[in-house]
């Protein structure tokens, strides 16, 4: 951690300096300021500021000699190309000569700035905007990528491609892999989408082309060169899934795993956190957990899941999940009875075993399995004993716990005994459990909860630190039983429990690493009454001999639901808009990276805050810029071994008096959330976002929006609504108050709603329905509105949904 401490110190010093820098400064008389020179830009070629790329790239020549100094002094020139289309490679031929130029290679706006200085004063910046157009669609993507050998896949992004200038609509995409190394089996997936994936395997060069088509017109191909070079790439874990008959030994072979540099491998097998389905099946012992071949003999039919990773002495592979399906023997003549026992437990707030507070709920659940994997059911459940005077009865818990019963309220202190008969359809077993209802002093079950390594990677010789989030429902003192269950081959490292400063408990463990490789710490807790947690928890960390420094590649605006648009900006950033941004951080070693954001400069009185002053942003919420001006954010990143170079992200917020186009806001009971344009909300399969959670999916639901035309009249066009996953008429959403061709007059506002239809029943296996709304502004097509939402039934959410009947939805 040699540099992370430096990061903390630098952050502290930055804060200290900021706190001390608010003192006075001398003023100056504006009348005595020297007169500024004047910067002037003239266009030598092409003839007009707007030009076509129909015949290819266009060379732009610019002249600054018309600039002047009130003192007739010699001028110094400072040119900047401050805006260009996304992925354009345009650069100025000179930054400090009287003449400069660049090559316009993509359609879009190019903005050039010139400042002149005569040795006494600097001019105000003069800007010139040039617009390149194209009568054809243009395929746009990154022309080159370089990755290390061992990289499995590379994302290709053609979403910046454009239709002919002035046109709007969808493009068709086609990616083609036209050349690859002779021994390569590389291939493309999603080759007909804007974002494709190239699957890589060997060292060498891979050449691709992207072509886009719009209304039958095809673009010129955009060429892409991907170079895969040798380097310290991570190893690759390989093992096949297996299927066996109950009674057979399972043999899993990871011998095909490899390291791209040919280094020897260490192997690690382990059960996943949820290794077996159905629950309750005991896990068999594993043999060969540190070798390429693993064996075990399952004792019941079911699906078993294991994880495999390999280590080459420097880097660890991605985890490979291996699934083993164990099927019953169709030739078996006997059928074994279910195995297991009834367990009596308390329910919230005390998840105790065998006891519970009077007045609270108790559960009686069968925990076990059927050796042949057959479905189990409760044949009979009887409350055979209860205290005198009790009126308690057994009830079903619900469909999510079919192998259990509950007593909703333990009404009298004493003994409650339940007898339950469980059948697999052929054989049955009867089991019983007893629970004591007590007044006070009920011992709740301690929970190991999670174990997490503070840093997933350290250098050999440094300590891996593991922290526990364990808890006890009674706040009883806990004992922490730490164990080092895995370490590199040949390692003599040990685990040591240490006191965590805040809790003053031994909920922290330290392992001083001595060899490169993976170290796994396991924990189980017990309370001071001797009751152990039901399960252990574990985490691992990696020791390595060297470290690559992380890098902050860029900072990008965050679309809703985490969708990013690298290189893309919003049409206009104004005060009180809800805006988020995040760093794009790369760590060549794949280490976990921690980032920190600091606002280092802002206009006078300006903040970036989720709690704005009502005078600045009335009735608004969300992270917003409160005043116009320039905001600079400084980003820090560290993998807790080395720190990335700092990265500054500058945001220019324009005043409301200079607002252009349309302003969009969503309106709810909490207030108005101003949204940037273009607006995009594309969630994954999920429960509703921005809707009332207390409403059922069987009721219509809506969000209210308002859109204001700021500086001109604007027209709604390309209005689209659809049911995403099926196109059903009865599940088509609708706009209220918004229609194709509708005009919003300058200064006027349009209020509309996006309505989701009632979904009366479950139609699909994924138990979700999706809805799409979109439109554009005709005069400014880039000001698009795209809103999608899903409603779904997940773990009891919208539990009143039923299965659809045939033909119920059309």
Helix and strand topology:
Blueprint: H1 4-20, E1 42-45, E2 50-52, E3 58-63, E4 76-83, E5 99-104, E6 108-117, E7 126-133, E8 144-148, E9 153-157, E10 172-179, E11 187-189, E12 195-199, E13 204-214, E14 217-218, E15 222-229, E16 242-245, E17 250-253, E18 266-277, E19 293-296, E20 302-311, E21 320-327, E22 339-346, E23 355-357, E24 362-369, E25 377-385, E26 395-396, E27 404-407, E28 414-423, E29 428-438, E30 451-453, E31 457-459, E32 463-468, E33 478-486, E34 495-500, E35 505-512, E36 517-527, E37 537-544, E38 551-557, E39 581-586, E40 594-601, E41 608-609, E42 624-625, E43 629-638, E44 647-653, E45 662-668, E46 671-675, E47 679-681, E48 701-709, E49 714-723, E50 734-736, E51 743-744, E52 749-756, E53 761-762, E54 768-777, E55 780-792, E56 802-803
Q: Describe it for me?
A:
By secondary structure, the chain is mainly β. The protein folds into 7 domains: 98 residues, Immunoglobulins (Immunoglobulin-like, Sandwich), CATH 2.60.40; 86 residues, Immunoglobulin-like, CATH 2.60.40; 86 residues, Immunoglobulins (Immunoglobulin-like, Sandwich), CATH 2.60.40.10; 100 residues, Immunoglobulin-like, CATH 2.60.40; 94 residues, Immunoglobulin-like (Sandwich), CATH 2.60.40.10; 108 residues, Immunoglobulin-like, CATH 2.60.40; 142 residues, Sandwich (Immunoglobulin-like), CATH 2.60.40. The chain has 1 helix and 56 strands. The strands form 16 sheets. Strands 8, 10, 13, 14 and 15 form a 5-stranded mixed β-sheet that branches. The longest helix has 17 residues. The protein starts with a helix and ends in a 7-residue tail after the last strand. Keywords: Signal. Pfam families: K319L-like_PKD. It comes from Microbulbifer spongiae. InterPro entries: Ig-like_fold, KIAA0319-like, PKD/Chitinase_dom, PKD_dom_sf.
């Amino acid at each position: 951690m040699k540099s992370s401490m430096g990061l903390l110190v630098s952050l502290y010093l930055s804060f200290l300096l900021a706190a001390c820098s608010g003192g006075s400064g001398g003023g100056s008389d504006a009348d005595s300021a020297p007169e500024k020179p004047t910067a002037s830009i003239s266009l030598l070629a092409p003839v007009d500021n707007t030009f076509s790329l129909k015949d290819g790239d266009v060379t732009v020549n610019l002249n600054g000699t018309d600039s002047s100094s009130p003192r007739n002094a010699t001028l110094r020139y400072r040119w900047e190309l401050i805006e260009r289309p996304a992925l354009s490679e345009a650069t100025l031929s000179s930054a400090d000569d009287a003449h400069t130029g660049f090559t316009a290679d993509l359609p879009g706006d190019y903005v050039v700035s010139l400042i002149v200085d005569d040795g006494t004063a600097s001019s105000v910046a003069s800007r010139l905007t040039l617009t390149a157009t194209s009568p054809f669609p243009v395929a746009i993507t990154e022309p080159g990528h370089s990755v290390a050998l061992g990289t499995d896949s590379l994302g290709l992004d053609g979403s910046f491609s454009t239709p002919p200038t002035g046109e709007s609509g969808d493009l068709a995409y086609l990616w083609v892999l036209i050349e690859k190394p002779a021994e390569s089996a590389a291939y493309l997936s999603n080759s007909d989408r804007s974002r494709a994936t190239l699957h890589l395997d060997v060292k060498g060069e891979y050449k691709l082309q992207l072509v886009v088509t719009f209304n039958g017109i095809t673009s010129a191909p955009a060429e892409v060169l991907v170079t895969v070079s040798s380097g310290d790439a991570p190893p690759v874990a390989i093992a096949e899934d297996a299927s066996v008959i109950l009674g057979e030994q399972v043999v899993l072979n990871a011998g095909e795993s490899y390291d791209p540099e040919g280094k020897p491998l260490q192997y690690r097998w382990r059960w996943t956190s949820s290794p077996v389905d159905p629950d309750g099946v005991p896990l068999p012992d594993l043999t060969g957990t540190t070798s390429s071949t693993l064996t075990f003999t399952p004792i019941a039919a079911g699906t078993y899941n294991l994880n495999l990773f390999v280590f080459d002495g420097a880097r660890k592979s991605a985890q490979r999940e291996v699934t083993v399906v164990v099927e019953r023997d169709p030739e078996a003549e006997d059928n074994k009875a279910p195995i297991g026992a009834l367990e009596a437990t308390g329910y919230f707030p005390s998840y105790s075993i065998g006891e519970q507070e009077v007045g609270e709920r108790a559960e009686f659940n069968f925990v076990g399995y059927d050796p042949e994997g057959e479905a189990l059911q409760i044949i009979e459940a009887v409350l055979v004993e209860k205290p005198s005077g009790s009126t308690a009865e057994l009830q079903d818990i619900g469909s999510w716990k079919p192998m259990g019963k509950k007593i909703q309220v333990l009404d009298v202190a004493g003994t409650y005994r339940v007898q339950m008969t469980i059948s697999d359809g052929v054989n049955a077993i009867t089991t019983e459990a007893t629970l004591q209802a007590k007044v006070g002093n009920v011992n709740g079950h301690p929970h190991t909860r999670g174990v997490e390594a503070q840093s997933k990677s350290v250098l050999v010789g440094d300590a891996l630190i593991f922290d526990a989030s364990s808890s006890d429902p009674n706040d009883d003192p806990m004992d922490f039983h730490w164990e080092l269950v895995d370490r590199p081959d040949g390692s003599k490292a040990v685990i040591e429990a240490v006191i965590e400063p805040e809790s003053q408990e031994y909920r922290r463990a330290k392992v001083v690493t001595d060899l490169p490789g993976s170290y796994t710490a396991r924990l189980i807790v017990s309370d001071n009454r001797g009751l152990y947690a039901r399960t252990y928890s574990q985490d691992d960390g990696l020791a390595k001999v060297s470290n690559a420094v992380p890098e902050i590649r860029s900072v990008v605006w965050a679309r809703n639901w985490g969708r990013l648009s690298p290189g893309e900006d919003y049409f206009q950033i104004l005060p009180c808009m809800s805006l988020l941004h995040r760093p794009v951080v790369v760590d060549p070693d794949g280490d976990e990276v921690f980032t920190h954001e600091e606002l280092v400069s802002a206009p006078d009185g300006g903040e970036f805050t989720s709690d704005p002053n009502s005078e600045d942003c009335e009735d608004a919420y969300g992270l917003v810029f409160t005043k116009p001006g320039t905001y600079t954010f400084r980003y820090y990143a560290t993998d807790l071994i080395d720190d990335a170079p700092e990265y500054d992200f500058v945001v220019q917020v324009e005043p409301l008096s200079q607002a252009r186009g349309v302003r969009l806001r969503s309106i709810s009971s909490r207030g108005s959330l101003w949204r940037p344009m273009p607006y995009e909300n594309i969630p994954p399969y999920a429960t509703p976002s921005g809707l009332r959670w207390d409403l059922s999916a069987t009721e219509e639901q809506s969000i209210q929006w308002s859109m204001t035309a700021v500086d001109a009249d604007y027209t709604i066009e390309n209005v689209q609504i659809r049911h995403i996953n099926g196109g059903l008429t009865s599940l088509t959403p609708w706009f209220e108050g918004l229609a194709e061709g509708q005009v919003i007059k300058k200064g006027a506002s349009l209020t509309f709603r996006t309505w989701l239809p009632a979904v009366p029943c479950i139609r699909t296996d994924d138990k979700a329905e999706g809805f799409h709304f979109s439109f554009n502004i005709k005069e400014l097509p880039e000001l698009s509105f795209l809103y999608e939402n899903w409603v779904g039934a997940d773990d009891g959410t919208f539990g009143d949904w039923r299965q659809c009947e045939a033909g119920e939805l059309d």
